[in-house]
Model the fold of this input.
Amino acid sequence: MRNFISSGINAEYGGAHRGKRAVCLKQLPSGLLLVSGPYKINGVPLRRVDQAYVIATSTKVELPAMPDSLTDSLFKRKPKPTKNEKEMFVENTTEEPKISAERIAIQKEVDALVVPAVKKVDMLQSYLRSRFTLSKGQFPHEMKF
Done:
């Protein structure tokens, strides 16, 4: 992990939560970063993000120890059932994937640890709620966050 990312605030610049700020919780064994908004503050759920898709800031947060259940296996998806030739042309009757009760419980557990740490730092809640944007003539590699 790049040394300036650890337990700090990151701005994501890719994916569904592009432009939102998130707290880096830890690095997973796969090399991906585990980040959370926290969900209660800005709607960014517990998710894995590649280091290439975050911009590290100088803002740091003192976080308590995270649960050991936060591993890559938590994010593993169930394999899709294969279709045979007859089912190929039948209307799609599969349900949309739902968030499991286990995932919701872990999100609440992590939020319970992160939110008090965020509240200790002055103005950090409003900072996390605001979006990261660039205007014409601004270059992130020339900025100090």
